[in-house]
Amino acid sequence: QLHYSVPEDREPGFSVGDLAKDLGVEVRSLAARNLRLVSEGGQRHFQVDLAAGVLLLDSRLDREALCGQSPTCSLHLQLVMENPLQLHRVEVDVLDVNDNAPQFPKPEVVLEITEVANPGTRLPLEVAEDPDMGSNSISTYELSPSKHFALSINVRGDGVKMPEIVLEKALDREKVPVHHLTLTALDGGNPVRSGTAKVTIHVLDANDNPPVCDPPISKVLLEENVPVGTLVTKLNVTDLDEGPNGDVEYSFKTSNNAPGKFTKLFSLDARTGEIRTKAPLDYEESSAYEIAVRARDKGSPAMEGHCHLRVELIDINDNSPEIVLTSVSSPVQEDATPGTVIALIGVKDSDSGDNGQVRLQIAKELPFKLVSSFKEHFSLVTSGPLDREKASGYNITVRAVDSGSPQRATQKTFYLRIADVNDNAPNFSSPFDTAHIQENSLPGTSVFSVSASDPDEGSNAKLSYSILDNGMQDVPISTYFRIDQDNGTIYTVRALDYEQDKVFQVPVEVKDAGSPALSSTAVVHVFVLDENDNAPNIVYPSVPKGSAFHQAIPALAEPGYLVTKIVAVDADSGHNAWLSYQLQESAEALPFQVERRSGEIRVAQALRESEDSHRLVVEVRDNGTPSLSASVVIVISPEESSMQDFSKSLDLPQSSPEDTNLTLYLIISLVSISLV
Q1: What are the strands, taking DSSP E only, across 592-661?
Q2: What is the pLDDT of residues 99-153, one digit of tens each?
Q3: Radius of gyration for the alpha carbons in the chain, expressed in angstroms and rounded
Q4: What is the value of pTM for the model shown?
Q5: What dotted CATH number matches 322-419?
Q6: Strands 194-204 vs 567-569: parallel, antiparallel or unpaired
Q7: Which of 274, 352, 604, 622 is 20 to 30 Å from 559 at the Cα level?
Q8: The CATH number of 537-639 is which of 2.60.40.60, 3.40.30.10, 2.40.70.10, 3.10.580.10?
């Protein structure tokens, strides 16, 4: 909190204080930190010179207009700086200058005094007014020289000096019926200023006892907001005269400067002297009232006395605290460190004492706390980590409670939004997925759709998918599959061949658009489903296309004799590779049969001696849909000398690399069928 003072008569542009020096900041940083002035009142009296870093007077100040008769006059300002957000309070005392001369309510005062008045009789005079304060206010009074009258100055309870003319020598109306005097009011300024009033005193006969107020100065304590019509006090005035000379009438005594301030709030019964309230009283508007009452009898000439009553109000807790949000930083990043300033909050209560002592509260479960900056000003700061994914914002209710009895409270709620930070990587619904696709599917066929989610928002949650090349296949995986980067759907790039590749591992990466970007991966196992796209291949007997295999058998071979065996393989798998053997139908009945599963050709019935050779067409068919087949033509010739068994008649040549491969294929085929 900074404190400056400035005399009230300075011209606009006068330098009040060096803000940059007193705040401990460099002048060149003031503009960048957006230093600005916030006045707590409705008028603007000051301005900030950012180039020089000083507080300047924006308009000429009039202390009397700003603070009236208050003993102190201070203007309260607030300085707000950003980056980081800071609030500084500035208090400027306006110093009084002796720019007003004392002035009497009336330029001429006419008084009356009976000639029988005893020495020591006092004639109260109107108090002069001087808007200045302190030493510049009224210091003393002076009365022009007189043989009969002198000046007496009394001090009222509030420190106001009250002049009275005191009779020092008995009067003789027949000699001097009228006395002309000059009353001068002097202030304590330098140079001294003064004001005068002419006092004319008429000397009258008769009524020689004035009304007397007992006590002449009194004080009453009264609670604010008492009902209208409440009795404040009843004046105790006595007059020793009798008849009309002792009959007293009461009236308020006012001055020109404040002609009706207390008369609007209090009523006076002219006959009984009772003073009552006639309007609500507010301690916050004024804590005390000075009431002057004139008690005047009905004698001739009339005599009067003066009563002074001070009414002091007792404050009650009738004002609720007021919460002022000076500045709110919303949104705030979710990675803000504990202690980050969220808002600057001011609080005030128009009551006084304990009724005006205010404390602020917020809910304990919130990750925020209140830190007192200085009197009646608080900072709302973070007290723990924030997580937008758990809470995207907070409704913060600030509650202000005073210390009065009964307590009064006010609350204000504002919404604080939490800004997202890319602190969460995308997450697949499953790190491993399985997909199936038929071989020979057209390029562009949809295989599988991966799905990932990101609890962040905005660009931090915008996901893109891509396929990683892990080098597990001989050919880059991207030559087989592609992925839609927006929705994660995997498509084929070319037709797949089950006989070449039965399964693929497709690593998929998902990446968000945050900065820095975060990512995660998943693996999709794509299994290629077999299709019946390979016909059976007859590996034995191996004959050129369009030729026939010739096999000789004994002419007297009996039924069951093994003629030969057809061996075939199918590159497909499963049902598509299950093979069956059968003879194609012919016009004549053949004495041979083929075993459906083994492919063995045996003699079905005894051969006749004169029987010629037989032509058999053996068809090998798989179990696929649609079924594929292959056939071989076998010519069987009965011979007398052919007595060897089939095992010897195979007449296989010596082992060669081709036969070795053929045997390997046969073994693989049989093993595959057995496994299925």
Answers
A1: 592-594, 600-603, 614-622, 629-639
A2: 778 888 888 999 988 878 889 889 888 888 877 777 777 888 889 999 999 999 8
A3: 59
A4: 0.49
A5: 2.60.40.60
A6: unpaired
A7: 622
A8: 2.60.40.60
**Partners of residue 378 on adjacent β-strands:** 345, 372
Band (pLDDT 50/70/90 cuts) for residue 259 is low
**2-95 CATH:** 2.60.40.60
Which value, to the nearest 10 degrees, does the dihedral of the CA atoms of residues 495, 499, 502, 507 take? -40
Whether a cis peptide bond, with omega within 30° of 0, leads into 406 is: yes
Give a three-class secondary structure readout of 326-367: EEECCCEECCCCCCCEEEEEEEECCCCHHHHCEEEECCCCCC
CA–CA distance, 466 with 470 (Å, rounded to integer): 13
Residues 602 and 557: beta-carbon distance below 8 Å: no
The per-residue DSSP string of 14-63 comes to -EEEEHHHHHT--THHHHHTT-EEEESSSS--EEEETTTTEEEE-S---H
Dist CA 279 CA 264 (whole Å): 7
Looking at the chain, the domain(s) classified CATH 2.60.40.60 span 2-95, 108-204, 214-314, 322-419, 427-529, 537-639
Q: How far apart are CA 599 and CA 541, in angstroms?
A: 11
Cβ distance 324 to 345 under 8 Å?
A: yes
Buried/exposed 50-88: b ≥16 CB within 10 Å, e otherwise = beebbbebbeebebbebbeeeeebebebbbbbeeebbbb
Cis? peptide before 544, omega within 30° of 0? no
Residue 159 — left, alpha, or beta (φ > 0 → left; ψ -120 to 50 → alpha)? left
CA distances from 496 to 306, 524, 536 (A): 120, 16, 21
Residue among 380, 313, 310 nearest 345 (CA):
380
Instruction: State pLDDT tens for residues 147-204.
Output: 999 999 888 877 788 899 999 988 887 788 899 999 998 887 788 888 899 999 998 7
Give the closest residue to 638 by CA, choosing from 562, 553, 564: 553
CA distance 248 to 271: 7
pLDDT per residue as tens digits for the range 219-237: 999 988 899 999 999 999 9
Token output for 676: 């299925």
